[in-house]
Backbone:
C-alpha cells in the first residue's frame, strides 16, 4: 500500500513511525512532515488546505490511502473533496466527512448531537449576537465558574473559564458582538462547569463498527502542578490508572456506543478517529469535547501501545470491514514528556540546534516541531520533541523519558518534571 499522511507534528511522527512497521506498506509519504517523519518516509512540501495540490501529489505518487492528522482539512471537507472527485474517489481517506467533522468544528453541533443521543455532557445554552440578552440572563441563572466556548475552531484558545459573573458577561459580549475569536465566536456555547479529572479516549470507526484504542491522559498547562497557560499538551501517559474496567465500561456504554450509533442513525459519514475528551465526575464520564482526529501528545503514547498493524486497521476503515480486523495492545505502559521552546505558549524562538538526539537508545523521540538543517536538526515550533518511553508501569516509563531528556539539549529548552504525578500519587 502507498500511503500519504497529512500533518507535521508529534502526532504525525508517531503515526508515521507506526505505519512504517506495517507489513502491507510499500511507500510512505508525509506532507509536510518534519525532521522526524523523514526517517520513516518521504516528506512532501504541501499545504494542508490546498486540496488541489494534495490531489496532484496523490495522483503523481499513486497513493492508495490518505491519513489525515489535524482537524483543519477535515473541517474544511477534504473527505468530501476526495469522494466527489472521479480521480480520487477510490483512494481510501482516514477521516470523517465535513459533516462528521462538525463534532469538533462546531461546539453547538456537538452539544445538540449529544442531547439527541442522551450522551452525558454539561448542561448548556447556545447564543448569538441576536440572542445576547438571553445569553446574559442564562449566565444570571447559573452558578460560577462560567464556561464560555466559541462555537468554531479557535486554535485551542476558544474556551474561557471565568469565576466572576460580571466578567463572564463582558466576555460573552466581547465574543458575540466584539468578534473576539472572529467568525469562530459568532455563536457561543455557555456550559455548566464540571469538576473532576480529565482523560482522552479514542476510537476508530468505519461508520458501522469501531475499535477502542488505548486511553491516555494529557497535561495541558505549561506549569508544574497544572498551573499557568494552556498549551497544546506538555506530556501524556497511557494507560490511565483511574480508568479501570468499571469506568471504561461506562465510557463504552454511555458515550462511545451511543456516539457511533448516533452518527449512523443520522447518516453522517464517519471513517476515522473519534477523540472523546472526557471528565470523570465522581466516577461518571461526561463529554467535555469531541475531536475528529487523534490527540497530540496522546498519540505519542497511544501508537506505541498498539501492537496490531495500523494499516490493517486503516484498510478496515476504508473498506468498511473494520469488524473483521483485530486490535491488540501492549501490556507495557507508555509515557511521553514534551520538550518545548522557552517562552512557549507565548513568544518563543525557532531555529535552535538540537543536540544529543543520536545518543537516545531507551526512548522514542517523536519530533513535534523540527526541521532538518543539513546534517543537524533545528527547532521549528513551540513544542519541539515528545520523548516517549515504555515501562512496566508509568513510573518506570517516566523515569526513562526523563533520563533520555537529560541527554538532549537545545537553547532555552523547557519541560515539566511532574508529568503523571497527580494520578500516581492517588
Ligand atoms: P475544550 O476545548 O472544550 O476541550 O476545553 C478546554 C478545556 O477547558 C478542557 O480541557 C477542560 O479542562 C476545560 N473545560 C471545558 N469545558 C468544561 C466544563 N464544562 N467544565 C469544566 N471544565 C471545562
Ligand atoms: N491533547 C489534546 C488535543 O490534542 O486536543
Residues:
Amino acid at each position: 500500500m502507498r500511503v500519504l499522511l497529512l500533518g507535521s507534528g508529534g502526532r504525525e511522527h508517531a503515526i508515521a513511525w507506526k505505519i512504517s512497521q506495517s507489513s502491507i506498506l510499500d511507500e510512505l509519504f508525509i506532507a509536510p512532515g518534519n525532521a522526524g517523519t523523514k526517517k520513516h518516509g518521504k516528506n512532501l512540501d504541501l499545504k494542508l488546505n490546498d486540496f488541489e495540490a494534495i490531489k496532484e501529489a496523490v495522483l503523481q505518487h499513486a497513493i492508495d490511502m490518505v491519513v489525515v492528522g489535524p482537524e483543519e482539512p477535515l473541517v474544511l471537507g477534504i473527505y468530501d473533496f476526495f469522494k466527489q472527485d472521479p480521480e480520487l474517489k477510490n483512494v481510501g481517506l482516514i477521516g470523517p466527512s465535513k459533516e462528521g467533522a462538525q463534532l469538533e468544528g462546531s461546539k453547538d453541533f456537538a452539544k445538540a448531537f449529544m442531547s439527541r443521543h442522551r450522551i452525558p455532557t454539561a448542561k448548556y445554552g447556545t447564543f448569538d449576537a441576536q440572542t445576547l440578552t438571553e445569553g446574559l440572563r442564562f449566565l444570571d441563572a447559573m452558578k460560577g465558574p462560567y464556561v464560555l466556548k466559541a462555537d468554531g475552531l479557535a486554535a485551542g484558545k476558544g474556551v474561557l473559564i471565568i469565576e466572576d459573573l460580571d466578567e463572564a458577561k463582558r466576555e460573552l459580549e466581547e465574543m458575540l458582538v466584539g468578534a473576539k475569536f472572529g467568525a469562530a465566536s459568532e455563536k457561543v456555547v455557555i456550559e455548566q462547569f464540571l469538576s473532576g479529572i480529565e482523560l482522552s479516549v479514542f476510537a476508530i470507526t468505519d461508520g458501522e463498527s469501531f475499535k477502542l484504542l488505548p486511553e491516555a491522559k494529557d497535561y495541558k498547562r505549561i506549569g508544574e502542578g497544572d498551573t499557568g497557560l494552556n498549551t497544546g499538551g506538555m506530556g501524556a501517559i497511557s494507560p490511565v490508572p483511574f480508568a479501570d474496567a468499571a469506568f471504561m465500561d461506562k465510557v463504552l456504554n454511555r458515550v462511545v456506543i451511543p456516539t457511533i450509533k448516533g452518527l449512523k442513525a443520522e447518516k453522517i459519514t464517519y471513517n476515522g478517529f473519534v477523540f472523546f475528551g472526557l471528565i470523570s465526575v465522581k466516577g461518571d464520564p461526561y463529554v467535555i469535547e469531541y475531536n475528529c482526529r487523534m490527540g497530540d501528545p496522546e498519540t505519542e503514547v497511544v501508537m506505541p501501545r498498539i501492537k496490531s498493524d495500523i494499516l490493517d486497521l486503516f484498510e478496515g476503515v476504508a473498506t468498511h470491514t473494520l469488524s473483521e480486523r483485530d486490535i491488540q495492545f501492549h501490556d507495557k505502559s507508555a509515557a511521553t514528556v514534551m520538550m518545548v521552546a522557552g517562552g512557549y505558549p507565548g513568544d518563543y524562538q525557532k531555529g535552535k540546534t538540537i543536540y544529543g538526539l543520536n545518543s537516545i537508545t531507551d526512548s522514542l523521540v517523536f519530533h513535534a516541531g523540527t526541521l532538518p538543517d543539513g546534517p543537524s536538526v533545528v527547532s521549528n515550533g513551540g513544542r519541539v520533541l515528545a520523548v516517549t518511553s515504555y515501562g512496566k508501569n508509568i513510573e518506570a516509563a517516566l523515569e526513562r523519558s526523563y533520563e533520555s531528556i537529560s541527554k538532549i539539549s537545545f537553547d532555552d529548552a523547557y519541560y515539566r518534571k511532574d508529568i503523571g504525578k497527580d494520578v500516581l500519587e492517588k
Observations:
- The pocket of adenosine monophosphate (ligand 1) is lined by residues 122, 147, 149, 159, 161, 191, 193-194, 198, 277, 288-289 (CB under 6 Å).
- The longest strand covers residues 270-281.
- The mean pLDDT is 96.
